[in-house]
Amino acid sequence: MANSKYAYVRNFELPDSLLPGTFMLFRLDGHSFHRFSDQHEFKKPNDVRALELMDHAAKDVMTEYPDIVLAFGESDEFSFLLRKSTTLYNRRESKIVSTLTSLFTSSFVFNWPKYFPDTPLQYLPSFDGRIVLYPEEKYIRDYFAWRQADTHINNLYNTTFWALVQEGGQTTTEAHATLRGTFSKEKHEILFSRFGINYNQLDARFRKGSVLFREENMTKYRSLFSQISSEELVATDTTLIESDKALEDTMAGSEASPTKGETRKAKTKKTKQRQTRIEIAHCDIIKDQFWDARLGIFSE
Amino acid sequence: MANSKYAYVRNFELPDSLLPGTFMLFRLDGHSFHRFSDQHEFKKPNDVRALELMDHAAKDVMTEYPDIVLAFGESDEFSFLLRKSTTLYNRRESKIVSTLTSLFTSSFVFNWPKYFPDTPLQYLPSFDGRIVLYPEEKYIRDYFAWRQADTHINNLYNTTFWALVQEGGQTTTEAHATLRGTFSKEKHEILFSRFGINYNQLDARFRKGSVLFREENMTKYRSLFSQISSEELVATDTTLIESDKALEDTMAGSEASPTKGETRKAKTKKTKQRQTRIEIAHCDIIKDQFWDARLGIFSE
Amino acid sequence: MANSKYAYVRNFELPDSLLPGTFMLFRLDGHSFHRFSDQHEFKKPNDVRALELMDHAAKDVMTEYPDIVLAFGESDEFSFLLRKSTTLYNRRESKIVSTLTSLFTSSFVFNWPKYFPDTPLQYLPSFDGRIVLYPEEKYIRDYFAWRQADTHINNLYNTTFWALVQEGGQTTTEAHATLRGTFSKEKHEILFSRFGINYNQLDARFRKGSVLFREENMTKYRSLFSQISSEELVATDTTLIESDKALEDTMAGSEASPTKGETRKAKTKKTKQRQTRIEIAHCDIIKDQFWDARLGIFSE
Amino acid sequence: MANSKYAYVRNFELPDSLLPGTFMLFRLDGHSFHRFSDQHEFKKPNDVRALELMDHAAKDVMTEYPDIVLAFGESDEFSFLLRKSTTLYNRRESKIVSTLTSLFTSSFVFNWPKYFPDTPLQYLPSFDGRIVLYPEEKYIRDYFAWRQADTHINNLYNTTFWALVQEGGQTTTEAHATLRGTFSKEKHEILFSRFGINYNQLDARFRKGSVLFREENMTKYRSLFSQISSEELVATDTTLIESDKALEDTMAGSEASPTKGETRKAKTKKTKQRQTRIEIAHCDIIKDQFWDARLGIFSE
Fold first, then answer.
1. Which residues form the tRNAHis guanylyltransferase catalytic domain (chains A, B, C, D) (predicted)?
2. For the structural domain made of B14-153+204-216+275-298, what CATH number should be given?
3. pTM of the model
4. Nearest chain C Cα to B85, which residue?
């Protein structure tokens, strides 16, 4: 019995290799997550459990695929940067898009009970993914700036909106009307004057999103720094969390203030002690500081 | 604060719409499932639990996407046919590929404990997917024939191989050597003479794979046939399960014997009683009978 | 000296094969031919010399590429149908598009002096081309109907417009105003009542465009019909030229009148005497008659 | 009469925009030019008339399309570099490929009689074209190095081969046998010792191919250098033509000798006097000198 008489159907499968030598930006979005978050009673404006679950899934994807050098997540979306020299699956688009989306989904569903122990899944979550190619670093920088600026804009709006609704007693219609046409400054003002909320002191996770990156090849330095206490490490972590004022400055086109020598030194110290592993931070990725300290993201 | 200065990066996202008016064949494969099946101690040569879980996930995908009119699964792969007129996600390739793969994965992981209550997931399963376009029905027929012939060839080999190992006491090396160069007939003979196994009486699920299809618009006929007992339905189901001899005849190029009038009549009767729902069968899809009885698969 | 250190740049060349088993419709348009026709003083509304030169170039392309089974031209554009089984240049899109466009251009420039003996080329003409895939015959029928309907609409407008200008003494602005919102019937009426022009008696080339097709495998019939005079052949040619009234009926959705037995018989007779060669006609390709008589266009 | 019932066929036309921000390398090759050159009795190993006609056509293409910043030709092929920011035809691949190929062909055919006044075209020449995208300058450098190294290798072989045949009395079979396995050095030796030919003194056009580039924005310097005689300009042109020894060194991986200060100074002087126009040179484009002097090729 020969199967070969049918095998010609394979000829319809056309190659879909992506241009070599370009960065792949893989982006993944939740499918109908507005409804999904309602059904599973996500907290408004942000649900830490859901965000941490997203981070967990993203970290699993990065762990499995070493050619992913950076990831950024906000809300129900995550972006992954693959190094431009990657030959993952011979750069076949469908293979990469589907496999990464699948693994993320797998982790999201598998780990759901860890983050939502009292909320069983009502129905199956799913995600869609796509790859966009970028030929130069500057576009990658701008891509991530675009996503983080989006995080800021959305979160400031949502935070103010839900304060008006949950604490201010407005209907959602009223809250939208209150916010129509307001600038960032006015939203900050509403939050502070009416609800006593200093936006810049809210959880950086909400304001900055999640940044996942690798800290590599640092083991040789470990002994040198073994005297640093874990308290210090925690402390330096906060150096990665910056105020939105600087963010707004950056996006408005003004020059970012030069990074103070002390801050950079502290971070470098911390960085050096880290072993090769994936870090999650909620820091600014619009200004140069993050990138200058991690030249490995673009190195081949 | 304006986000618009970065939004130009969207211009790098290129359209990827698939040619209208052509059938989409979406195929999905387990990622490294050889290792996955070893780690989770799948039974050899077939693990019913795993196959039923695959069917479950495929059915969830078909339920969510009405434009899928047929699916076929074997081992760790599943193929889905989308009607040629589908405008799902504007026929965007990455969107369709990633979303369908994601939903399948989601169901597979979510339902794992139902089928493997005593075998916790050791690590995250994932799948890859791709779409192949076919411009004509004949290619679709041959595509599914190709997959089912593959099912038969692999299953006959594996069944004989594992009989030699598990019951015949051969090492895997010896078993491969025993089977080298043998034809179908000889494998049948080994199974029957040495192990008392009549291959054609093994579970049709293993020999034919799983066929998922819709039975639609039959409600108007329901009252007419309400007198048919459920026993009769179960009985007629078996008419869908045929011997591999016919399959081999078909694939060898010889003419399939004409479908007997009685059989066709019985099936039609059963079909008409069914309400709109997704059916799972383990029947021949190489010969005309299956397709002649379901012209709706290709109708628009 | 090794060239191999640079040869890696070939890896950036990605495959661009077109889906097998689908019709290729190659369309070619003059580049800035509005200006080109002005500069070379083409006659308005139609310049026979230019149209015949286009036909000549199209015929050269068909002669060189046997997989082109049909072509249709109007104004400065030409469409070519390649059989769906063609493996020309392994169905590589850029190769086919560029080569066909190049050969057409080559012929157009080379043969220019034959058709414009007194008008030297003022500057270099060029064309652009593209391929559109169609999975079914019905789309091919509709594609050609689309182009021929376009020919009719444009030519009726242009003929009336230039009559108003050249014979009616209107400015071009006035002529556009006169025609604004008019239906076909009114344009016919203007032509007839004001200028004594019966549109349906104008050169079929202008009203129908040019249809190029192959008449094949007829050599065996030649001796049977050798007594037919060339006068008769010319006469039967006119059976291919039909009135626009029927065309308008067809496009308006009404049923085309059945082809009279006599007409078909006459054409068949003529057809049979022809040897394998490329014919140019100015006939209807919207109704069934043309296609019914040339089943070979779609046969493989 | 409505054409709209057919217009849906346009939906099958899919977008084919090329990735923004990447260099387009458009390459064009003669179609079956081996036969074409035989039929039109091109001189062996090189026919100056044919090469100059190719240059002429390439220059016409560059003149028409300002986004082409560099071109390189050898034998029956030509490569064109489009700046990475080009938005020509919205970066639609088929449109660009077909139009550029068409214009080149148009010029080739139109200008044929100027270069071959005594050799009428026997049949229609044609070319095929394609676009390859490159994300970085280094790949562009290597692409052009690849083509020029190819020119050298082919020309050295062909020159020696035809010397053996035309002057050495060998058959073509014998000549191939003589050259089998020989290195560059041995071919140089055969040419010199047996035929008195110093390869490095042959026409640079044959050894280096043709390089077309723009010299822009130099008008402001013109008055300063107006005292330079045309003799000096011709003289400095030769500084662009270098020996193949250096080329071979470069390709073999050894460092190119540093450009002498005098030479660079002389070229700069000449360059500054040039007005904005397309230059044709037969110079090295593998080493840095050419590129260092024309930074505008990569500037946006």
1. 6-135
2. 3.30.70.3000
3. 0.86
4. C135
